[in-house]
Structures
1.
Amino acid sequence: GAVVSQHPSWVICKSGTSVKIECRSLDFQATTMFWYRQFPKQSLMLMATSNEGSKATYEQGVEKDKFLINHASLTLSTLTVTSAHPEDSSFYICSATRAGGPHEQYFGPGTRLTVT
Amino acid sequence: GENVEQHPSTLSVQEGDSAVIKCTYSDSASNYFPWYKQELGKRPQLIIDIRSNVGEKKDQRIAVTLNKTAKHFSLHITETQPEDSAVYFCAASMLAVSGTDKLIFGTGTRLQVFP
């Protein structure tokens, strides 16, 4: 159990357009989902924490108007990169914690975004 | 906020040798310390974790030690195999303002095991 999926697995978009990435917990309810960004050969940087039914909490330096996060249900969170630019090209990974379970985060397979 | 430092950034060992990766954290309130293995283009995989009420944990060839006083924790891999080659990340968990635990990752160690 504890499977997290992401869609799409990769996407190429033009500069100025918006892209939506979905993160789903397939076999458990996730009260909290996290969104990370990982540049090549770098670590995972937490962008925001998303709780079902409430506004996301963004990390310092992450523009909330650019990276829109919606967590409408216990199994789905979405990240929309608005007005994407080439510098937004990165590997975006979500994770989820099981409702009632402590600490362990289950990671999605990631979405590679390339902005041309 | 929490800061996690990880050393070394790269580590090359001969097959069969041991590998040790070290991390330090800054926030004494952190109480959960997982280690992840990440292969290129893949998701991080949890390989072992330790909680602050335990000093050491072992799972076959992998062990983790925690020194809360010094705020150090280390990953030990014995009898390394070529398939252990990957990037390893340590992380520390702190209770965020929202009440939700969040992970702060170290900078990663690229481990290469040569046959």
Note: Chain A has no helices and eleven strands.
2.
Amino acid sequence: ILNVEQSPQSLHVQEGDSTNFTCSFPSSNFYALHWYRWETAKSPEALFVMTLNGDEKKKGRISATLNTKEGYSYLYIKGSQPEDSATYLCASPNQAGTALIFGKGTTLSVSS
Amino acid sequence: DSGVTQTPKHLITATGQRVTLRCSPRSGDLSVYWYQQSLDQGLQFLIHYYNGEERAKGNILERFSAQQFPDLHSELNLSSLELGDSALYFCASSASGAPYNEQFFGPGTRLTVL
């Protein structure tokens, strides 16, 4: 994988549903994997930065896992709420570790 | 509030013109990154400065240039503007530019080229 890829592109769930999205990234020369949350009309905000294979991070109802050997990360949201509606971006540093390459994001819409 | 400031918030200009976008990083952060977000595109990395020196270049056009000043604020200069340059331009800062440093994003500058 040469790019950072995210799936699905968009997702619509009902309030209370749990959901998850995938981020695939180049597994060679791994430095870190970043997750950002981007609400409409705001700017991206960091959720997690993960550096170790098998890492799991949690913030409230949102958690993420990391597999550096196969080059993927999952973001989970438990009991989705309307305020979780946003675009979730993942990013991986380039080969030199000097820039972040972002995926196109997964846009989550939660209906009440 | 991330602590990163960008000015102006909106900019409307004509093709062929030149504009300057300004970014002030969070206090203490040495790295500044510029990104472009166009319709249907993700965040595209343009350029990274660390403590006044260019550290990395992404898909930045030759018509675009940037610099970081001794007080660590940065400017992105866009010249000979084309319709396709209309986009949201974000600046982000991080502590040291290490790949595991989270980046803090400014509110963005919305550029419209008519």
Note: The radius of gyration of chain A is 13 Å.
3.
Amino acid sequence: NAGVMQNPRHLVRRRGQEARLRCSPMKGHSHVYWYRQLPEEGLKFMVYLQKENIIDESGMPKERFSAEFPKEGPSILRIQQVVRGDSAAYFCASSPSGGAPVGLHFGNGTRLTVT
Amino acid sequence: TQLLEQSPQFLSIQEGENLTVYCNSSSVFSSLQWYRQEPGEGPVLLVTVVTGGEVKKLKRLTFQFGDARKDSSLHITAAQPGDTGLYLCAGAYTGTASKLTFGTGTRLQVTL
């Protein structure tokens, strides 16, 4: 069974460009979560989505960041006009249902470097 | 802001030794999970605990959830080099069940 697939694994962008990060959840999982891991910091929740719906975006910066999980295709985390502070590892996770005590299955992340 | 503190931050031990990692919060968890993360990879779920006082064993790993559901511990018996990694606890607080708050992690190195 394929796990959570994220691509690209590494992404380099210049300041001001856009970054698009993709996440395909595990088969049968309809709940997707995005987390960000800054160097030497823990994972921080960004957004929780179900198909075509944003359920909780309380961890998402108000500007430049957006996320979607369309009916067909992967979930996309989009960062517009990237700045150096956006450099981080972005992890996607999925679960078969929402709410505790469900464990999350994580992908191997996209490492974004902004130059 | 809800904080979840892990201790120690770093731990370097020799093969065969025992160790305990702690995860503490001032708030009550509705559930708590432990993950292990290796360099360049995503976290991998080890266990979920839900009930206060609950103890779960996974081979040489023993997880305990505090009676008040504010803290947890991970004990490893007879550590092996394969146990090396970053151990993360993650709590779901009441009312925010789908949003995990992660601790900053304990980086464990087990040498021969």
Note: The first strand of chain B starts at residue 4 and ends at 7.
4.
Amino acid sequence: GAVVSQHPSWVICKSGTSVKIECRSLDFQATTMFWYRQFPKQSLMLMATSNEGSKATYEQGVEKDKFLINHASLTLSTLTVTSAHPEDSSFYICSASGTSGAYEQYFGPGTRLTVT
Amino acid sequence: GQQVMQIPQYQHVQEGEDFTTYCNSSTTLSNIQWYKQRPGGHPVFLIQLVKSGEVKKQKRLTFQFGEAKKNSSLHITATQTTDVGTYFCAGVYNFNKFYFGSGTKLNVKP
């Protein structure tokens, strides 16, 4: 089946620094990648949708200048949390779809970010 | 805005009992997807429903999409301990906007 990897799996950073999270589709070309945030015991909150080669579409309430998304190739998307603060601590999960539109998503294992 | 409501939040059952989780949308969906997230894991796609009134089965799992395409259900017959996890529906609008339900956490007692 389709495999999506994320790196790092967990990261601890100091307040004010930036953190980059990578999402890779290992055995398929991901036309669309999604970035989610999941709080403990809660559902997935869609942050943004990105299509290869174009700007990401951010959901309402998500600061695009704070959460920079780049989808430069069909196998790689990155999320950079800039000037991180403790309230940015969360579980970030990416998913990828092999086609645009509402097709099944393959989720990465997630990245646990802790900002101290 | 669009919102997908999912109930119940938790369900504890004895092994062998049935389980059902429900999702409702205030507006019409283009399609709906179901995912399962095991404890400590990431969501895994189960199925997608597109047609009004559609019913799909996967072994002991039965998925339904309402006639109005505003609600959906997942029913598990004779639960097993391997069914433990959180089940999420993802309502899709205009075939490109996803909204996950809050999830139903299923615990199965052996």
Note: Chain B is about 0% helix and 55% strand.
